[in-house]
Write a structure and sequence with these properties.
- It is a single chain.
- This protein has 22 helices and 22 strands.
- By secondary structure, the protein is α+β, with helices and mostly antiparallel strands.
- Strands 5, 6, 7, 10 and 13 form a 5-stranded mixed sheet that branches. Strands 18, 19, 20, 21 and 22 form a 5-stranded mixed sheet that branches.
- α5 packs across α6, α12 packs parallel to α17 and α18 runs antiparallel to α21.
- The two termini are about 20 Å apart.
Length: about 700
């Protein structure tokens, strides 16, 4: 660990030095050095080897060269002879004769007495000059050579930011001094073969988002993966469509260069990642902390650590995702979600003036509930989004997954068969996975299926209610027909008895018409307005909504600090909470409340219910179940629902067109959707990230080590 850019003692500093030695050597090119065969034997080769190796290697080379020189010179002294030794020690005299000349470059106690020995002494002095000059040059050059104590993380991360895929690479500067003019490059390396048979490595530069200009302690560089771009191959690895073995020719090279003002020279580091070195669905562990004095501390021991992303966000795209591989079993759980748009541009049949075309986002509420369950259980999966927007062409691969072209559909690891429907998927996963089973099993003894049915009625009844006018009763609504009646029937407002009564009334009216007219029965039109209205639809719908919120209000009322009443399923949310929260989410939006008020549907949400909703929306994976961008799919989901209501209604003028359009505009204003290119808006906005405010000691202190 380092504090304030200066080294300090640490109980694990020795272990840190030992573990980072190889990483630093590899970052300086050590990995490539070990792969070379031979440089040959020459003075330049020795010089090169000494400079690139460690100080220990340099010391061993110097000691070896001097030892070899002394040995050779001592042997020559014994052969030539002609020297005088005052100590009269014949055993060590030749070695002392050579050592004095080679090491000190002058005469010593053993002196030459003949011309031959004198010539040998001068030659040895000259050799000593050469050796000392070269060795001194080695030492000085190594001192002057900037050895950057930079290392790159062992693994590159494949993750998402605001739902969009990214590659992350972490860089560490162990000295924590500030390096200027930093430049980081990521290069995709792929082996290719030409039609002529030549094999070569292609190099494709990958752009970086907000590359650092200075380096102090740690920095993480990010490349946004564009599926249609050169880095699209990483999507195959990230989504699991291809294994690391199938992409064994995939290499990512990271080069870091920066100016070191201490050495007044550039330092550099390099690392090459293979497909096996990518941590899929992971981010780097935090290495920064603040001690008791408020000073930043960097724990370099964790620089290689990665953590799985527990929240899965779906990115906004131009259209449906590339479909799953139908020809082989799933490598892990695969789930197909339904996608839609917040605006279809000028080609929109229902609302052509809403604005420019927006991106494809997850909109299916059934998919949303399933995503909440999977994320709550911590179960990883590969998502696919299929365009199910009204009026758009659904992808062909969706029909292969589900002939009805409905979502969600899923297939288990190792299976080729698809499971359709959220309930069927949940029950299958609960049978096979303990984590899902534990979430599904969350129940309260005082909450039963009756409560669940009351809550489920609210949203469907509202959708059916706004499709009829303010004076329409149940019987007249049945005679009008359409999707509105189907929705009212689903929630139990339209019963078989009412349908039978309406059928008998219609039959009697037909008989009266036939009696009054000589026209064939096929040409007689029954007057829908001239019928018994029955109970008012909107009054019944308002009662359903009130009962739903009153039920939640009672079930979540605190009881002497009992945490078991925080959620409908107990201390932690369960399937009932996910379903209720998704179905009732729109009721907590002011714009939707105004829309319902214009259709004479009013309701009140109590404090306990609002507290429950706040706890649900504060879950880390609440926002991950819908689309990414700024809207979390809210605007796209609202657009999908309102469009169907307007186009499928059999009662002309309802829901009110002006109120519907105002609802959509307000929702887009409150939850701005992601836009696609050529709209004048930002392209695929991905800045849906919360700003960290407050200026805590951790933020302010560690920020100094991130610049």
């Amino acid at each position: 660990s380092l504090r304030g850019g200066l080294p300090r003692k640490h109980k694990s500093s020795k272990r840190l030095r030992e573990s980072s030695t190889k990483a630093v050597k590899d970052a300086r090119g050590g990995a490539a050095v070990t792969s070379r065969t031979s440089l040959g034997f020459s003075a330049s080769a020795i010089y090169f080897l000494v400079l690139e190796r460690t100080w220990w290697y340099c010391a061993l080379v110097i000691a070896g060269v001097f030892a070899l020189s002394l040995g050779v010179c001592a042997l020559l002294c014994m052969v030539v002879g002609g020297f005088h030794d005052p100590l009269d020690s014949t055993a060590t005299a030749p070695l002392r004769f050579a050592a004095s000349h080679v090491l000190t470059m002058s005469f010593g106690t053993v002196t030459p007495v003949t011309d031959a020995s004198y010539a040998l002494a001068v030659t040895q002095c000259f050799l000593g000059v050469l050796l000392n000059v070269f060795m001194f040059t080695f030492v000085i050059t190594k001192f002057q050579r900037p050895l950057a104590h930079m290392l790159l993380a062992d693994s590159a991360c494949l993750c998402t930011r605001a739902g969009e895929p990214f590659i992350l690479v972490r860089i560490g500067n162990l000295r924590c001094n500030t390096l200027h003019r930093a430049e980081v490059t990521l290069t995709l390396l792929r082996r290719k073969r030409t039609p002529e048979g030549e094999t070569f490595v292609s190099r494709t530069a990958l752009s970086l988002q907000e590359p650092p200009r200075t380096l102090t302690a740690v920095a993480t560089v990010a490349h946004k993966i564009i599926p249609q771009g050169p880095g699209g191959v990483f999507m195959d690895l990230a989504t699991g469509r291809k294994t690391s073995e199938e992409l064994k020719d995939l290499l990512l090279q990271c080069i870091v260069t920066a100016y070191d003002p201490i050495y007044d020279a550039e330092v550099c580091a390099v690392k090459v990642y293979s497909a096996h070195n990518f941590a899929r669905g992971c981010v780097y562990a935090d290495v920064m902390n603040v001690d008791e004095k408020g000073q930043a501390v960097v724990d370099f021991e964790r620089i290689h650590d990665v953590l799985p992303q527990k929240v899965k966000i779906f990115p906004p795209l131009k259209d449906s995702w590339e479909g799953p591989d139908m020809n082989r079993p799933a490598r892990m759980l695969e789930v197909v979600f339904g996608g839609g748009r917040a605006c279809h541009g000028s080609k929109d049949d229902a609302f052509p003036t809403l604005g420019p075309l927006t991106a494809m986002e997850q909109v299916c509420s059934y998919c949303y509930k399933l995503a909440l369950l999977l994320n709550e259980a911590g179960m990883d999966y590969i998502p696919y989004i299929a365009n199910i927007s009204l009026g758009d062409d659904k992808p062909d691969w969706l029909e292969a997954c589900n002939p009805k072209k409905e979502t969600p559909v899923a297939r288990l690891q190792g299976k080729t068969e698809w499971i359709a429907g959220s309930d069927a998927i949940m029950s299958t996963l609960a049978e096979m996975d303990e984590r899902v089973r534990a979430v599904v099993a969350r129940r309260r003894e005082d909450v039963n299926e009756g409560h669940e049915q009351v809550i489920k009625k609210a949203y469907m009844s509202v959708l059916g209610g706004v499709m009829f006018g303010p004076t329409v009763g149940l019987k007249r609504a049945v005679k009008i027909g359409g999707v509105g009646v189907m929705l009212l029937k689903m929630v139990g407002l339209v019963t078989p008895d009412i349908e039978k009564e309406v059928e008998e009334e219609m039959k009697k009216q037909m008989e009266r018409k036939e009696a009054e007219s000589e026209a064939p029965s096929d040409d007689i039109v029954v007057d829908v307005d001239n019928v018994d209205e029955g109970l008012n639809v909107r009054s019944l719908v308002q009662t359903c909504v009130s009962e739903a919120f009153d039920t939640i209000e009672r079930l979540t009322a605190p009881s002497h600090g009992d945490e078991g009443r925080m959620f409908l399923c107990g201390k932690a949310p369960g399937v009932m909470d996910f379903g209720a929260a998704v179905d009732l989410a729109n009721f907590f939006q002011p714009s939707f409340e105004v829309f319902l008020a214009k259709h004479d549907i009013r309701f009140r949400i109590g404090p306990n219910c609002r507290a429950w909703h706040a706890r649900m929306t504060s879950l880390p994976h609440w926002r991950s179940g819908m689309g990414a961008g700024h809207s979390d799919g809210t605007a796209a989901a609202m657009k999908t629902i309102v469009t169907k209501l307007v186009l499928w209604s059999k009662d002309p003028g309802y829901p009110e067109r002006a109120a519907s359009e105002e609802l959509l505009r307000s929702t887009m204003r409150d939850f701005p959707p992601a836009y696609i290119e050529d709209t004048g808006k930002e392209e695929m906005r991905s800045d849906d990230m919360d700003a960290v405010n407050g200026g805590t000691s951790l933020n302010s202190a560690t920020a100094k080590l991130c610049v």
